[in-house]
Every structure is written in structure tokens, then in C-alpha cells.
Amino acid sequence: MPSKPLTSKPLPQKRLLQNCLAEIRWMLAFWLATFAWVIGYSLTYGRQDGGQEPAVLFGFPAWVFWGVGVPWLAATLFTCWFALAQMSDDALEVERETNDPEEETTVQP
Amino acid sequence: MSESNSALITFVIYMLGVFLLAILSERVARGKDFVGEYFLGSRGFGVWAFALTFAATNASGGSFMGFPALIYTHGWSLALWIAGYMTLPLISMGLIGKRLNQVARQTNAVTIPEIMGSRFASPAVTLVATLMLIFFMFFYLLAQFKAGGKILSTLLSDEPAFQVAAAWVTRATSDLPLLNQASGDYLLCLLGFSIVVIVYVVYGGFRAVVWTDVMQGIVMLVGVVLMLGLAVYQVGGLERATRQMALMTPPIPSDAVVRLAEPSATDLSLPKGSWIKQAGEAYRTAEIVIIPRGEQDSPPVKVLQITTPFEVEKIHSDPQVATVQTQLGLAIEIISERPYRHGHGQTGVYVSLPGPSETSDFGFLAIGTAISFFIFWPFGATGQPANMVRLMSFKDSRTLRYSVVTVSVYYAVIYMALVVIFCCGRVLMPGMEIDPDRTMPNLATLLTREAGMPWLAGLLVAAPFAAVMSSVDSFLLLVSSSVVRDIYQQYVDRKAPERTLRLLSYGVTLVIGVAAVVLVIHPPLYLQDLIVFASGGLAACFLVPILLTLYWPRMTAAGAIAGMLGGALMHMGLTAWGYWQFGEFRAYEFAGLNPFIWDLGLSALVAVCISRLQPPSQPI
């Protein structure tokens, strides 16, 4: 069954849209924060003068530990918290008002 | 299982598993709406299936062949290069996941062009999106098929049974046009790989692709975790590896003449990768060396000069190297050297930024490159149609939320582990710069042999093969779904019966797969660059238009078309500029930034401006 155009009426499920837009703000803020931390820290402390003994932390070069490892751990924890506690469980199914009986049979259960 | 054919036996077992999953998925699909089931698995995938198919599709063969090669060559700077993956799961799944899935259900769409066309009730939008998708995706498909053949031949190259079969294929095809242009090992692997992928995709459709992705995702995870333990243990701890890397200096690629003590009585050949040592120095041949009978010198050959003292010492103390050297009385005379343009003669370059580079004065990871990749990984993944299609297939919001968590943990483990493993590999295996793509299989063989478990090498080397296969199957189905759904059903027969659609889907998948295989028997030049071109082009073309289509009420059909064309044209324009500037098939990096950034900028600009100039198509 080919797809149906959505010209008859506005897309419903406003609540899902509003929730998605609110969540996007969180996600972009999260991305900006990790960008600032990772790029800022790594480019500031990742360069090393020749012959200098590197600082090593738990086996990682210190700049990798603080500039990539720790933010990666923090990002994973944030992602888990955000996905489990902040993202909403919106209904994805849509009840379409239609007079086309054939179409009604094709809408997913 | 013996060491000799372990990878081959693992490969055969793996293939049997793939076929079994295809058969099972076909049985599950019986009695369901064909198009929805074949191309989207009836939109009913739960957490594990959805999360692992998403993770495996993103982790293409590059993650297990190209990425290890880069870590080996440039050291710890790769940790920053890949760091954008920390935000990839949340951004690429969360940004559009729920909304895309909802609109796809509402419009009963199974492809991305279909969603965009339905949103604006515009066949023109569907057509442009379909053409763009097929154009870029077909390049991608070609490159992935070639990668599949290459990776498999690399992984199996040391297997005795495979060498016999490859030699037979070479002889058998020597008089056949087209086929005789490819080497026997590549041809054998390309055909084996392609037949398996095409058969299970044609037979099982999207469900088979997802189920095999799940298996492949598990193989990748198990392989990486095992390698991590073995690598860290055998190198003597990660701290020891890092401190040794800090003492390393980049090798010097050179041209040299290999000399015998006396003229050779027979034609003498030294395989690629042979070690030659003299007077406190160590060299590794980067190509096969042939010294004709009666001659003392070889023609000029490429060699790699090792410059790190403890590596030279290690090579000198290797009894195998000593035996070969004593028997042949080898010496070497350097003709010319091509030192690294960044990092030559410097210690510490493998543990600091920007990492050593053979080709760039600014080092491997210049500031603009680091910034670009942190943007490209998460947002480029969001714009990939193969990922978007997966976002149309999960069954409910809860599945999405738990899958974000799963993929986030999965990537954190896999990618940080890969960096650690191949930094250890840098210490364990000197001289791999002659063939960095073999870093993964060689390290797997070394680690398992040292651990007394050679049979394990087969499982470890299955990981990169699983990765490339999980990408190829997705792209194959994506292109065929666009042809069937967006062209045939839209323009040829809107009310085509299910039987016709079924036969057409099988036929198109088969034809596209076979066409791709025929084209890569003798692959065109710059094929690897085409991967970069195609993935960047897809993201440039689709990311902004799909975001605005889903979320911006003022977006219009003309704006969507302008956004797609703007991103695509900018991408092609920068690539053409790069070709004109450098004589190579690579995009020009304006202001040192990845072309993706500029593509997105133009795409957004024209999409918004054109939409603003028109009345809204409909409220959202």
C-alpha cells in the first residue's frame, strides 16, 4: 500500500512533538557541553614538548584520561539518565480519521 | 581446531549461522504485509534487535580495519579523533527517533523519500530524495562490496586451504575477460562474500538483516573484549605500553637496494615484510624483493627504517630474523628517505596531539580536523538514511529509550577498548606501517598464539568481517526499497499486488547486488575516497531537510528540495575543488574544516530562505 499524503489535516500528536522539541534542547546542550570539555581540554593539554616525560594516569596519557575518558564516562552516564528518566514515553500510534476503508486496514496496529 | 585454518573454519561456521537466521526470519515473515515486513520488519523490533542493528550498521568495516590501522600509525591522538562517538547514540537516535517513527507510521511510509514526499504531498520531493539516495548510496554500496572482498582476503591470506583455492581461481580465470583483471584471492572472497550477503538479504529481507546484525554486534563485542584482555596482559599493563610509546619515534619510509654477500645462484625472492638488520639498524621490506640469478643487488624497493632504539633491539634479538639474515648475508643500501612531515625524530608524538603524520606538516589531528570530527560523527550519523530507516522500525518509545542506553554503553566499551588494544599493538608489533590494514588480523594472530589459544584467532578476525557485512546488507536493502517503493509504486503501479511487489523486491535486490559485484571485480580508482564522498554526501543531503521536515512548521516542498540539492551540490563542489587543487579525489577543506560543516550550512541556508519566501505548505 503506497503512502498517503498528509494534506487533509495537520499532523496530530502535538504532545509528542512538544516533548521531542524539549528533549532536543537538552540534547544540544549536552552535545555543546561535551564539545567544550573534550575539545577545550584536549587541545589545551594534549600537546607536549619534545623529550618531556608524559603524565600518565591509570595507563592513559593524562590528557586522554581527563579530556576523553572521563567525559566519555560522564556522557554515557548522562545518556543513561536522560534516556531512562527524562525522555518521555510518547505513543507512536496514530488514529487517522479517514473515510477510506482500505487505508484503515493498512494503519499499523 | 588447528591454528592453520582457524579463520577459515570460523568463517564457514559464521556463514552457516547467517543462513540459518535468514531462513528463520523468512518463516516469521510469512502471512504478514509484504512491503512493511520485507523493508521494515513490520515496525516491531524490541530493544536488543533495534539497539544492536543500529550499533552494528554504524560500525562498518572501517571500525575494525581502518580505525586500528590509524591508531597504530598515529597513536593516542585517535582517542580524540573518535571522541564524537560519546554523543552519537543520544544525538543520532534521540534527535529524530520518536518523531520520525511516528510520522512513518502515520503516513505508512517505509522509506525516507516517502516520508518527505508525504509530509508535503509532493511527488517532486520524493523523486529528488530518491534520486539523491540512490546516487550516493550506490557509490557506498560499491565501496562496501569491495571492502568486504578485501577484508576477507586479508583475514584469510595466511590460511593454507584458502591459498590453494585462490591459486586455483587465478588459473581458472586467467583466460576469462573481466575476471582475469582481478587477483584470484580477491575474486574468490568477493564472490563468496557477495553471494552470502545477497542471498540472505533477498531471502530474509529487513528482519534477516536485523537478526544477523544482532549476531554480528555480539561477535564484535566478544572479539573486542577478549582482545583487550589479551593485549593489556601481554604488553605488561597499559601504563607500560603508554610509557614505551612515549619513547618511540616514527619510522622512515625509504627506497633502498637489498644486497647479497655474493651473486645469487638462483632467482631469489624475499616476501613483503621481511626484516633486515645491519649495524644497529633495522629495516622491513614494504614490498616483495626479487634478486635475479647472477645479480647481487635487487632493483630499488620500498623499505621501512625503524628508528626507535628498543624496537631495533627487539628485532635484532629475534632468532628468526637472525637465521634468515645469516643464511643469505643480506645488507641494505638506502637510496632515498621520505621522513614524516610531522614528528620525524621526535619522541612523545605517539602519546600527544596532533600525532605523527607522513603527509601533513600540521600532524595527523590538526585543530580544525579535531573539531570537524566531533561534529561529524554524531550529526553525520543522524543524517544517514540507513540509520533513519532503523529509527522507523522500533516498536515503541520505551524501546528507543532503552536502546539509546544500550548503544551508548556498547560504543563506550568498543571504541575505547579499540584505542587501548591497538596502542598495545603498536608496542607488541613493530613495523606494521608497511601494511597497516593488516594490523587487526596480525595482532589477533599474535595475541592468541602467545596465549596458547590459536583457535581463538578465528573468532577475533570475524569481528571486522561482521562489521562490513552488517553495513552492506543495510545499504543493499535501502537502495532496493527506494526503487520498489519510491519509483515503482509511486510512478508505475500504485496498486501493485503483493505478489508483484514481492517478486520485484527480490529481483531488484538481486540485480543491484549483482551489478555492484560486477562493477567492483575491477574496482575503479579512488574507491576508498568514494566512501568518504558518499557518506558525507548522504548526510549533507538529508540531515537538514529531514530535521526541518519533522520539526519546522514553515518548511515547504521547495525548501526541502533546495535543502537537499544545496547540501549535495556544496559537497560535490568542494570535492571538485579539492580534485582541481590537489589532483586527488578528496574534498577541499575550507578554513581547515571538514566539508560536511559547509554542506550543512548551505543546506540549512537555502532550505530556510526558500521556505520563508513561500506560503506554508501546511501547519505541523
Task: Give an overview of the whole structure.
The complex is a heterodimer of chains A (109) and B (620). Chain A is mainly α. Helix content of chain A is 58%, strand content 4%. In chain B, the strands form two sheets. In chain B, strands 3-4-6-1-7 form a five-stranded antiparallel beta sheet. In chain B, strands 2-5 form a two-stranded antiparallel ribbon. The longest helix of chain B is centred in the middle third of the chain and has 52 residues. The model of chain B has no long low-confidence stretch (mean pLDDT 86).
Count of distinct strands of chain A = 2
Helix-and-strand structural type of chain B: mainly alpha
Through-space gap between termini of chain A: 15 Å
Which residue ranges of chain A are poorly predicted, with pLDDT under 50 across at least 5 consecutive positions? 6-10, 96-109
Assembly state (oligomeric): heterodimer
The biggest sheet of chain A, with number of strands, parallel, antiparallel or mixed sense and barrel status, is: 2 strands, antiparallel
Q: How far is the first residue's CA from the last residue's CA of chain B?
A: 61 Å
Entry keywords:
A: mainly alpha; two-stranded antiparallel sheet; B: mainly alpha; five-stranded antiparallel β-sheet; 24 helices
In short:
The complex is a heterodimer of chains A (109) and B (620). With 109 residues, chain A is mainly alpha-helical.
